[in-house]
């Protein structure tokens, strides 16, 4: 691999692949690599653990994959660079891409085709190379990844469980659609932006008319009985990514029989929300299992290796 000096590298990258590096659009333009490549795109992206788990999977599954040197990168791509760089990733022989904040929704008009899951969620987190269409097909593995993570890590079935979802961005849309598909008892969308939150709730009501779907603004510490009994509270906001981030809601409002799933994760340990829930004896987990499941599902789309075989490798790499 030969990269030139780029805005994201800070120094000249060597000829060896380094999963710890964060590359930039300028690096992509200078890239000379014949082997198949994969990448995650976002801004910010330096915290992403996707290269660690995907490259661990490539190493572990080597005998089940073509011997073509396929590897996974991390690129910091600004919103205004996405329309230009997606075709460039295609030209540079990338076979698959993952999208994270802020690209999951913005990418949809730039794709040649989107799956039913991505259409229902209104967001794509996984792109698959489509040579016949000379572009990218959008998929969404976030929702299924969330369901698998919630059921295995929290021992909570989504069917019959009321879900309180914090956020209305790309990840929240996928989680909402998957929870409703799984038969959750009700869904409450909580978001600072009323327009964005109500828009998501309206869209979901059309697709799932038989389930109670509501919207509400932020919680007040003075509220009582703010959550339904047995609720699964899911944080799909960015709060929790950075050390010192406050919880996205007052933890004292959580009912004693609630469970908490925080879709964020960070190297600093448990988020404030997860830590507070655990202190009160509630089942709570961060987003690493969801990250590993959505990654394993994407790996299956790109490489044909079943997600159930890949997940243990990816989750182990995240630990």
UniProtKB/TrEMBL annotation:
GO terms for molecular function: NADP binding; shikimate 3-dehydrogenase (NADP+) activity. InterPro entries: Aminoacid_DH-like_N_sf, NAD(P)-bd_dom_sf, SDH_C, Shikimate_DH-bd_N, Shikimate_DH_fam, Shikm_DH/Glu-tRNA_Rdtase. Keywords: Amino-acid biosynthesis, Aromatic amino acid biosynthesis, NADP, Oxidoreductase. Residues 40-127 form the Shikimate dehydrogenase substrate binding N-terminal domain. Shikimate binds at residues 48-50, 100, 125, 142, 265, 294. Residues 290-308 form the SDH C-terminal domain. The active site is at 104 (proton acceptor). GO terms for biological process: amino acid biosynthetic process; aromatic amino acid family biosynthetic process; chorismate biosynthetic process; shikimate metabolic process. Pfam families: SDH_C (PF18317), Shikimate_DH (PF01488), Shikimate_dh_N (PF08501). It catalyses: shikimate + NADP(+) = 3-dehydroshikimate + NADPH + H(+). It is an enzyme of class 1 (oxidoreductase). GO terms for cellular component: cytosol. The keyword Cytoplasm does not apply. Residues 152-204 form the Quinate/shikimate 5-dehydrogenase/glutamyl-tRNA reductase domain. Its EC number is 1.1.1.25. NADP(+) binds at residues 167-171, 263, 287. Homodimer. Involved in the biosynthesis of the chorismate, which leads to the biosynthesis of aromatic amino acids. Catalyzes the reversible NADPH linked reduction of 3-dehydroshikimate (DHSA) to yield shikimate (SA). Belongs to the shikimate dehydrogenase family. This is Shikimate dehydrogenase (NADP(+)). It comes from Candidatus Spyradosoma merdigallinarum. The lineage of its organism: Bacteria, Pseudomonadati, Verrucomicrobiota, Opitutia, Opitutia incertae sedis.
């Amino acid at each position: 691999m030969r990269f030139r000096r780029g805005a994201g590298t800070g120094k000249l990258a060597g000829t060896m692949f380094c999963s710890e590096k964060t590359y930039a659009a300028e690096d992509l333009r200078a890239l000379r690599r014949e082997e198949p490549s994969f990448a995650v795109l976002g801004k910010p992206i330096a915290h992403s653990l996707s290269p660690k788990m995907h490259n661990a999977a490539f190493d572990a599954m080597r005998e089940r994959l073509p011997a073509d040197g396929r590897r996974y990168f991390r690129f910091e791509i600004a919103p205004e660079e996405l329309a230009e760089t997606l075709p460039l990733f295609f030209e540079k022989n990338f076979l698959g891409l993952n999208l994270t904040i802020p690209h999951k929704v913005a990418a949809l008009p730039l794709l040649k085709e989107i799956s039913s899951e991505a259409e229902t969620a209104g967001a794509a987190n996984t792109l698959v190379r489509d040579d016949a269409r000379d572009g990218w097909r959008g998929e969404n593995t976030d929702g299924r990844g969330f369901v698998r993570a919630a059921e295995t890590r929290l021992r909570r079935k989504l069917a019959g469980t009321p879900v309180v979802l914090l956020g209305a961005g790309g990840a929240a849309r996928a989680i909402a659609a998957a929870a409703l598909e799984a038969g959750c008892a009700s869904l409450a969308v909580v978001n600072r932006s009323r327009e964005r939150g109500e828009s998501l709730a309206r869209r979901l009501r059309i697709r799932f008319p038989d389930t109670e779907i509501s919207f509400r603004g932020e919680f007040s510490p003075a509220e009582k009985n703010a959550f339904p009994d047995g609720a699964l509270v899911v944080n799909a906001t960015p709060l929790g990514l950075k050390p010192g981030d406050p919880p996205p809601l007052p933890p004292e409002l959580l009912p004693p029989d609630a469970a908490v799933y925080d879709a964020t994760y960070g190297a600093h340990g448990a988020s404030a929300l997860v830590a507070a829930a655990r202190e009160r004896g509630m089942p709570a987990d961060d987003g690493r299992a969801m990250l590993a499941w959505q990654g394993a599902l994407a790996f299956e789309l790109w490489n044909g290796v079943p997600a159930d075989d890949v997940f243990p490798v990816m989750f182990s790499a995240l630990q």
